[in-house]
Write a structure and sequence with these properties.
The protein is of the alpha/beta class. The protein is built from 21 helices and 21 strands. Among the domains are: about 210 residues, no CATH class; about 180 residues, Anaerobic Ribonucleotide-triphosphate Reductase Large Chain, CATH 3.20.70.20. The strands form six sheets. Strands 3, 4, 5, 8, 9, 12, 15, 16, 19 and 20 form a ten-stranded mixed beta sheet that branches. A three-stranded antiparallel beta sheet has the order 18-17-21. Helix 2 packs antiparallel against helix 3, helix 3 crosses helix 11 and helix 9 packs across helix 21. The C terminus is likely disordered. Bound molecules: adenosine-5'-diphosphate. Adenosine-5'-diphosphate binds next to strand 7.
């Protein structure tokens, strides 16, 4: 199978089996190991499917049409056998509860998963502690401990842990939380998001106050002007991209199993809202592989890969070894999976459509709508012979008379590493730069040029070395006279696209995604706070489940940098 140099390097460093420090499996062996292991779940239902599904899983992975999330690639068929990327762990308002959560998080990080927590149940700073007569430290203080613990647990040498910290906007410590990452050296292993309620957004709209509630006593302790808090969030988001926000009422409005629990947090990158103790495994279809020679989408193949991927991800739930019995219980009760896409921009380039064009939004809806429908069909079909998910009774699907095998089907993940393995554009993001230097595992690699961009430039006879050098210096082709205008329109980067267009694309994908969508909305460095506020409002108005912004140059250690900046 064909893999890029970067892909080989990542696989060797983190994914392939090693003995005494030596790599002892090839990438093909790895996919064989994963396919063999995941197809074993077929034995639970229909033994004669095993060989056929092993081959089907092997094919879609080695053709780079579909890849599961990193923990599945790393751990399937090995001792760890921990296959999920996403977990949410509840944090109770007691010392035992806090340290129980810390222990579970440590176990999850060791196995390559990421953890999300809501700290909203913790009593605020300076509240009383009855048993000792002392005062409580508050959520932010305990989060420091989680941060240090994460720092110390290198994930089996594979990757450092990632956490999401969520605090409800009506928690009394909210202003401290919003400002906590002003010092960039603090809480480095956490992404921060404020859980915003509809009540809060209404208070912002009419410029009134709202109540802050002590979760311990369940009493309103003070009121704040909603716009002051909203402006504080926007101020910090402008400053360094954090906190993001999640629209928690909207997330719970879409909760498929409200009878099982309330959703209070998401996984680290925000795309997967989960119940307490719930985990979810993700996988992504590489859309770059579904454009045929006539520059049309190969719907038949996309349907096949979607169905096969759903079966793969459903099998993962059976084959997974869970770090805790309570996690196994909730996860197996709902059987959530998160099938998404990557290589969306590569698909657009092959179709001759620029990311900022209206047509790109239409394609997004068409493709994700198709995947969503086909994934549902596949899950429904699986339910006929494997049974609906155990918590189906009482779920929103029971009301619709739609027995499904999985309580959710679709999620758009960032695909940070698996898109590098597949050598495609990440998730639904536009290209960050047409040519750039990419750090691979702490080492700076050579200049990277997107393969589809390279091909297109060559097709237009653009292979003049100086010109390519200029493109790579700027990262963009906009305003380069030698590049035909139609190409300039097609080859837009994250910076050439307005923030509004970013949100529009996020909303288009969200329409057909059960869970949430990972997307960064890029702003130029000279964007104002007002620009950021407009985009937060737009995300709320257009049905997004959350929003994360990034103003160019506002954070140190940016992972991807345009070559002229490095
Ligand atoms: P990948 O491409 O490696 O499969 P993604 O970038 O799509 O992963 O991230 C998906 C999810 O995996 C994240 O939201 C998070 O839950 C988890 N994750 C990502 N990176 C890490 C990490 N370094 N440590 C722990 N979990 C992670």
């Amino acid at each position: 199978m064909e893999l890029s140099q970067a892909a080989k390097a990542i696989l060797e460093k983190r994914y392939l089996k090693k003995k005494y420090g030596q790599v002892i499996e090839t990438p093909e062996d790895m996919f064989r190991r994963v396919a063999n292991n995941i197809a074993m779940a077929e034995e639970n239902y229909c033994k004669h499917h095993v060989a056929e599904m092993t081959e089907a899983f092997f094919q879609i992975m080695t053709r780079l049409e579909f890849l599961p999330n990193s923990p599945t690639l790393m751990n399937a068929g090995r001792d760890l056998q921990q296959l999920s990327a996403c977990f949410v762990i509840p944090v109770e308002d007691s010392i035992e509860g806090i340290f129980d959560a810390l222990k579970v998080a440590a176990l999850i990080h060791k196995s390559g998963g990421g953890t999300g927590f809501s700290f909203s149940r913790l009593r605020p700073k300076n509240d009383t502690v009855q048993t000792t007569g002392g005062v409580a430290s508050g959520p932010l203080s305990f989060m420091k401990i989680f941060n240090v613990a994460t720092e110390e647990i290198k994930q089996g040498g594979a990757r450092r842990g990632a956490n999401m910290a969520i605090l409800r906007v009506d928690h009394p410590d909210i202003l401290d939380f919003i400002k906590a990452k002003k010092d960039a050296t603090k809480y480095t292993n956490f992404n921060f998001s404020v859980a915003i309620t509809d009540e809060f957004m209404q208070a912002v709209a009419v410029n009134t106050t709202y109540g802050l509630r002590n979760p311990h006593t369940n009493k309103i302790v003070t009121e704040l002007l909603a716009t002051d808090v909203y402006n504080a969030i926007i101020d910090m988001a402008w400053h360094n991209g954090e906190p993001g926000v999640v629209f928690i009422d909207r997330i719970n409005g879409a909760n498929p199993t409200p009878h099982v629990g309330y959703i209070e947090s998401t996984n680290p990158c925000g795309e997967q809202p989960l119940l307490p103790y719930e985990s979810c495994n993700l996988g992504s279809i590489n859309l770059a592989k579904f454009v045929n020679d006539n520059k049309e989408i190969d719907w038949e193949r996309l349907k096949y890969v979607t169905g096969t991927a759903v079966q793969f991800l459903d099998n993962v739930i059976d084959m997974n070894q869970y770090p805790l019995e309570s996690i196994a219980e909730v996860t197996k009760g709902n059987r959530k999976i998160g099938l998404g896409v990557m290589g969306f921009t590569d698909m657009l380039i092959q179709l001759g459509v620029g990311y900022a064009e209206d047509r790109a939004v239409e394609i997004a809806e068409q493709v994700m709508g198709f995947i969503h429908t086909e994934a549902r069909n596949a899950s429904k079909e699986l339910a006929t012979w494997r049974g609906a998910f155990p918590n189906y009774k009482g779920s929103i699907y029971e009301q619709q008379g739609l027995p499904l095998r999985n309580a959710t089907l679709t999620t758009i993940a960032p695909t940070g590493t698996i898109s590098m393995i597949a050598d495609c554009s990440s998730g639904i993001e536009p290209l960050y730069a047409l040519a750039y230097k990419r750090k691979i595992i702490d080492e700076e690699s050579d200049m990277q040029i997107n393969q589809h961009v390279k091909k297109l430039l060559e097709e237009h006879g653009i292979n003049n070395k100086n010109l390519l050098e200029r493109i790579s210096e700027r990262g963009s082709v906009q305003g380069i006279n030698e590049i035909p205008l139609e190409l300039q329109k097609l080859l837009v980067t994250a910076h050439d696209i307005t923030p509004k267009q970013h949100v529009r694309m996020q909303a288009a994908f969200q329409k057909y995604t059960d869970n949430a969508v990972s997307k960064t909305v890029n702003f130029p460095s000279n964007a104002s706070k007002g620009d950021i506020a407009k985009v937060f409002n737009l995300a709320y108005e257009t049905g997004c489940k959350g929003i994360t912004v990034y103003r160019d140059g506002s954070r140190l250690g940016q992972i991807l940098q345009v070559s002229s900046v490095t």
